Please model this.
Amino acid sequence: MRMISLAGLLFVLPPLLMPASGSEAKKPPNFLLILADDMAWDDCGAYGNKGIRTPHIDALAREGMRFDRAYLTCSSCSPSRSSIITGRYPHNTDAEELHWPLPASQVTFVEQLKASGYWTAAAGKWHLGNAVKNRFDVVHEGNPSSFQLPSGPQAAGARLTSEAKGNAASGCDQWVSTLRDRPRDKPFFLWLASFDPHRDYAAGAIAKPHRPEDVMVPPYLPDAPEVRKDLALYYDEIGRLDHFVGEVMAELERQEVSQETLVLFLSDNGRPFPRCKTTLYESGIKTPWIVRWPGRIRPGSHCTRLVSSVDIAPTILSLAGIERPLSFQGKDVSVLLTDPLAKVRDHVFAEHNWHDYAAHARAVRSERFSRVEGWRGG
Model:
């Protein structure tokens, strides 16, 4: 029998991960999930929108991997979040309708991390109900109504302060402090959820507002002054979110844990405009999906394979070396981080149930085709 040398074998087999040195290879990774609220997949510079200023989100893509076919299981806020955290499709979470709390009987990936020695925390928008708060060591639930920008002569200064220091209207005001307060002897998982760019919109979200004439109007919306003004305010809230993304990334650098921290950025559903949020069109369920992990993911890479938000839970546990619960319905897509041409899925699935009214629908997508079917209830 022909013998193959170890050196020859190493030459033939592709590396599963980019090289990691010494202690870095032995440490369990930290995880930082940043979740936008109602942000379309293509409303940032990294996905081609040149009319919006998102330097920090764009930097994540330059330094990591951009996914071009990432989909959500639902285009409605709380059902989408419940699906992400449980690794299950919304109709199997018992929280498939807007504002339904996630039951205590549901298993999340967070308690699996916690049981394995991770410190787990959430800060910002919650929208999952009270029964699963105990899956985290710390929950700092945001309250956007607790902060209002003043009007009158003081308004301009307040806008500058809100951009520089953050405020409760964004839901991001405790992101950095939560990261700073973590115990330093444990790996960590942070669920950082923004209220931006959810409606309602008001001027003053950022110091330098976007101009209506610079926005990119989607082809299914009328190119009218009122629409451009509304989109500009929506852009401003994405700009505010981007500011806090930058603050968090700077804090990771200050703590010298950037190299051992995987950062995932995505949205819970599409923009809050007609034909987007609450629909199963691309504009409703397609999401930005950017993963940054220095030294482990090649900078500036991108993946065109299908991934679903239901895959996040099993993927994080796989990367942490933790066995997945039987309840998870998603797939481990971690191989795509090092081999973006690998094929993990043939299809992704999405659903809509009740948001402001019953409008049940189901969708399936392959890399070439999509199909949506639905019905309305009373």
Remarks:
- Residues 30-376 form a domain with the Alkaline Phosphatase, subunit A fold (CATH 3.40.720.10).
